[in-house]
C-alpha cells in the first residue's frame, strides 16, 4: 500500500489516526474541494495531482499521483486518465475554511459506503471539460477580473481558460477571497512581475 505523507496542521497539533468513518469524511471533503462540489465535474489524472501538490500544497507530487491511483482503486474516483470524476453516489461535504486533509501513512482507503453499484462512469458526446471555458467565464463577470486573467495568461504562457480554472480552485480552497486576490496569488506562484500585474489591475 502506498505510504502517504502526513499533512501537518498549521497549529502543528497531533491528531489521532482517523477511524474509517472519519476517513470517509476526510476524503469526501477533499473531493468537494477538488471537484467544486459538482459530481459531474471532470478533471485529468495529472491535473488533479498537480492541484493537490502545487496549487493547494497538500501532498508531494509523488504522493499526489499515488493518492489519485488509490482513490481510483477504492472506487472514490471513476473514469479514465483524462476525465476523472467522483463516484456515482458521491455526497458533497463542504469543509470549513482553512481545512486541509489529514491522511495517515500506510493508508488503507475504505470503499465509499454510499456508492451506487448500478451507476458506472459513462462517456458523453461532449465532455464537461469542453464546456468548462464557457462555465468559467460566467463566474468572471467582473470585466477587470477577465482582463487580469488575460494579462496573466499572456505573461505566464498559460491558456486563459487554465488561468481561470486555477483561480477558481484557489478561491474555493482559500474561502472568502475575491477572484482578483486569487488571480494575484496565482500570478505570484508563476513568478510574474507583480508590479506590472498590480499596475494593470
Give, in spatial order, the strands making up the sheet with the most strands.
1-2
At the first level of CATH, the class of the largest domain is: Mainly Alpha
Overall shape: it is elongated
Mind summarizing the main beta sheet?
2 strands, antiparallel
Number of domains: 2
Helix content: 40-55%
- Return the average pLDDT rounded to an integer: 73
Outline the structure in words.
The chain has 201 residues and is mainly alpha-helical. The protein folds into two domains: 1-115, Arc Repressor Mutant, subunit A (Orthogonal Bundle), CATH 1.10.10; 128-200, no CATH class. It is 49% helix and 4% strand. The protein has a two-stranded antiparallel ribbon. Residues 1-19 and 116-141 have low confidence and may be disordered.
Features:
two-stranded antiparallel ribbon; single chain; Arc Repressor Mutant, subunit A; disordered N terminus; about 200 residues; mainly alpha; 2 strands
Outline:
By secondary structure, the chain is mainly alpha-helical. The chain has eight helices and two strands, in the order H-H-H-E-E-H-H-H-H-H.
Write the layout of secondary structure elements.
Blueprint: H1 20-35, H2 45-55, H3 61-73, E1 77-80, E2 83-86, H4 128-139, H5 143-156, H6 160-174, H7 179-189, H8 194-200
Helix pairs in contact: 2-3, 4-6, 5-6, 5-7, 6-7
